[in-house]
Amino acid sequence: MSSIPSLYKFLGNPAIAGSVLAGSIKFTPIAELNDPAELNPTLNREAVLSSLNRLREIGYSQDDLIHLRRQGAVLHALSPSSQAVQVPSTPEEATRLIQSSFYDSTSTLERMLTQTARDIASKVGLFCLSRRFDSVPMWAHYAANATGFAVEFTGLENEFTGDATGVLRQLREVTYAQEIEGVTFDPKSHESLFFSKYMDWSYEQEVRVVLPLADCRRHVHDQGNLYLYSLPTKYIRRVILGWNINQTSADAVQNAVSEVCPSAEVVQAHFVRGRVSLVSHNGAA
Q1: Pairing between β-strand 196-198 and β-strand 175-177 as defined by DSSP bridges
Q2: Rg, C-alpha atoms of the chain
Q3: Residues 205-226: what's their mean pLDDT?
Q4: Residues 6+ apart with CB under 8 A from 86
Q5: Which residue, among 197, 212, 94, has the nearest Cα to 163 in the 3D structure?
Q6: Which of 7, 111, 209, 223 could pair with 127 in a Cys bridge, judged by C-beta atoms 3.0 to 4.6 Å apart?
Q7: pTM value > 0.85
Q8: Positive or negative: CA dihedral 126, 127, 130, 133
Q9: pLDDT at 19 exceeding the cut of 70
Q10: Contacts of 109 (CB under 8 A, 6+ apart)
Q11: b/e map 115-130, b = 16+ CB within 10 Å
């Protein structure tokens, strides 16, 4: 994706500031996310049949083949046992395959999709950020009613540059819709598993990275596993203190910045007349 000026991670626990600012970021397994629809396969039978009939009639294009290869790379990386057939090498070969009886049964597709999504979901984690620092719901939901803080990142597209899958290890914007069509025979539709959410979540203005958990270091603790990725601190520009943060927590965050990420600026969020603004610690806006 094109360069983004800043992205924000909202955090509710000031005690973890030292770890985060030292570049240890958490990738959350799908099962621990707060959206129950994440990587939950959606199968719209009408859309599935429509895409099947369209491809059987007009065939695959060269562009479609690019997405089929990316789809195959996703399966190879995360769920190789689900890859029932090899990726065709030409559009003509892909068209002959889609016209075969193997793809006649949508019930078979639904079973395969459900198992594949479950397998993929068990192997990836998400690092979720927002385009906005001034979203009141984000401060409320993810920064403990503004008693926490937010970290501003810049240049992350230089760290997460992507791979052959077109979905893993890269920054991607989340798309929002009233209805999610889900996975069909459209060779690009598998991306909806990773980057589509319902419109109710649009206030997040989310940009995310999907990473295989195998790329992270696993830390075992009392509540389960923690998956951490080492991110260079050069990508941290500022730390924003919530307007309800207490002085002890604010001092702890400030100390963490001084010790492990001294190049980062610390600013204070203010909430006035329903809007969030930023004020630096020397009083300048």
Answers
A1: parallel
A2: 22
A3: 91
A4: 72
A5: 212
A6: 209
A7: yes
A8: positive
A9: yes
A10: 43, 48, 103
A11: ebbeebbeebbbbbbb
115 — pLDDT class (breaks 50, 70, 90): confident
Q: Which of 60, 73, 79 is nearest to 169 (CA)?
A: 73
> CA-to-CA distance for 25 and 46, rounded, in angstroms?
41
Lookup: tokens for 36: 């129950």
pLDDT at 285: 45
Q: Find out whether 200 and 222 touch, Cβ atoms under 8 Å.
A: no
Q: 25, 125 in Cβ contact below 8 A?
A: no
Quickly tell me which residue has 């403990």 as its tokens. 144
Q: Quick check: helix, strand or coil at residue 270? A: strand
The predicted-structure confidence for 148-192, as pLDDT tens digits, reads as follows 999 999 999 999 999 999 999 999 999 998 887 777 888 888 888
142-180 burial, b if ≥16 CB within 10 A, otherwise e? bbbebbbbbbbbbbbbebbeeeebbbbbbbbebebeeeb
The tokens describing 128, both together, are 């979720």
For 50, phi then psi, to 5°, come to: -65, -45
Question: Length of the chain, please?
Answer: 285
- Average pLDDT, integer, range 83-99: 88
Q: Which residue has the higher pLDDT, 177 or 82?
A: 177
Q: How far is CA 105 from CA 60, 94, 180, 265, in A?
A: 20, 18, 22, 58
The token duo for 77 is 């990386």
Residues 75, 78, 82: CA angle, nearest 5 degrees:
45
Q: SS3 for 214? A: helix
Q: Classify residue 240 by burial, with Cβ atoms within 10 Å: 0-12, 13-18, 19+.
A: buried
State how far the Cα of 15 lies from the Cα of 13, in Å rounded to an integer.
Answer: 5
Give me the amino acid identity at 200: D
